[in-house]
Amino acid sequence: MDGGRSLRRLWLYPMTALAAVAVVVFTSLYVIDLAATGGPAPGRADGFADYFLFDQDHITDAVAGLGAMVAAVLGIVVTVVSIVVQLSADRYTGVTAMFLRDRTNLVVMAYYVITCVCGVWVSLSLRSEFVPRLTLTFMLMLTVIGLVMMAPYFGYVFRFLEPANIIQRIQREATKTAEAGAQEDPRDLAEAQALALSAMEELSDITSNSISGKDKIIASRAVDALKDLAIRYLDSKPRAKAEWFVISDKIRDNPDFVAMDPESLADLEARRTWFEWKVMRQYLAIYNEALSQMREINYLVAIDTRYIGEKAADAGDDELVGLVFRFMNSYMRATLNAKDVRTAYNVLNQYRLLVEALLERKRLPDALTGVRYLKYYAMVSYDLKLSFVTETIAYDVGALCQLAHELESGVEDELLALFLEIDRPGLEHAHDKALSGVRKAQVKLASFYLLAGAEDKVGRIFNDMESESRERLRAIRDELARVESKDFWEIIDRGRNFEFMPDAQRKAMLSFFERFEGLEPLPSQPDAT
């Protein structure tokens, strides 16, 4: 339905309008000539019938003109299209091959060539005793169609070569190739693997070129196209033949594969994840390149990787869920090495959302694994003196503990144990700012447990904090009590201040602090309990 509507809007309507305008203009002028300014030549018919007499003494000149006109139009079309395609090919690899594979381009070029050949043949078919009137009329119509088709075709070419459309077409062709190739005869399977892999690299090249040119829109669309390719592939993956998951000789020499240890390659085959690994390998390259140039792309890569992980969880693909974690961890490692706190903050948001999705889908071992990774990177951030990253992870893990309680999952105790290890016991005086943030996150979770009636969980947090100095506890309490707005005073992607608690939870927080001996209540909150 959409294809028919597009055909009418982009081709039929413009061509009909152009032809109609030409017919109206010519007919109007011709009628005026017939009625007033001209007249019939001696021995000729009168009116419109005279137009189609095709006098053999003079029609030869007109026929030659028709053929030359079509050839000239073909030359214009070829020249313009060649220039535009070459300009696009300089920026996007594979555009020329894609252009030549497109059915519309082939049909239009074939039409002009056929019309030119017909024009040559018609010009040679005229005789003094014979005029092929039907053939001439048909040739006239072919020429008219070729002329009015030129403008819509230029519009089609320009739309075809728009970067967004190129990206969409690469992704769509790669998806079809992978879907078909995974079920093909093994003799054709290697070619399908190579074509799908080439499409991934084309999308990666487009992203890299766009990052270099500071073209955020095109880079974002290419990154999203890789995600769409992976997600649609997962829909057809269960129907794939076993041979599809074997890395063929045709792609084994690819730089991303040839540098891998043979054991790692064998693992990809055994886990049936070479296709997704290649997609996310492109993501990792894009991520590292964008880290110092276009941080928005880093955030988008993390978002799309999370989408792949959620799709893998829905499909029950355990190996792919583990692979997604490995790449998310690689993003975190690259970010921490660059000491890019803002990017780490954004990537952690997606990491937390991924673990939340796993909790909601009852994939509890995977969720626990994700939290263990988060704890590890909290420690790494602590050692790198990136206190805000450690604090962010603490609040994220606290939010995951809260969700686990709300979902009544069976891993809440394990999550809480991991959460209480983030404060690094024994290193309280290394850099106090990070540890204060972790303690605030623990207090916030304890306040939630108080409201939820989970006294055993509150007790575990209290026991973990009891050895803290009362001066530090007082400072933490006072800072949390002063936070009254959920909105942070700067624009942030998460939308909410970490330290904000609703009124009921804030009262529970003050009640929690009253459990510590030697910690006097806030003067302004004597009835906090």
Q: Could you tell me the number of beta strands?
A: 0
Please state the structural category.
Answer: mainly alpha
Uncertain stretches of 5 or more adjacent residues: 426-431
Pattern of helices and strands: HHHHHHHHHHHHHHHHHHHHHH
General shape: elongated
User: CA-to-CA gap between the ends?
Assistant: 66 Å
Count of runs of 4 or more consecutive helical residues: 22
Portion in beta strands: under 5%
- Mean residue pLDDT: 83
Gyration radius from CA atoms, angstroms: 35 Å
Percent range of helical residues:
over 70%
Taking the sheet with the most strands, its summary is: none
Descriptive report:
The chain has helices at 2-37, 59-91, 95-101, 103-125, 133-160, 163-181, 186-212, 216-236, 249-252, 255-258, 262-271, 274-290, 295-315, 318-337, 341-360, 364-383, 387-406, 412-420, 432-452, 455-465, 470-481, 503-513. It has 529 residues and is mainly alpha-helical. Among the domains are: 1-46, no CATH class; 54-161, no CATH class; 371-529.
SSE map:
Blueprint: H1 2-37, H2 59-91, H3 95-101, H4 103-125, H5 133-160, H6 163-181, H7 186-212, H8 216-236, H9 249-252, H10 255-258, H11 262-271, H12 274-290, H13 295-315, H14 318-337, H15 341-360, H16 364-383, H17 387-406, H18 412-420, H19 432-452, H20 455-465, H21 470-481, H22 503-513
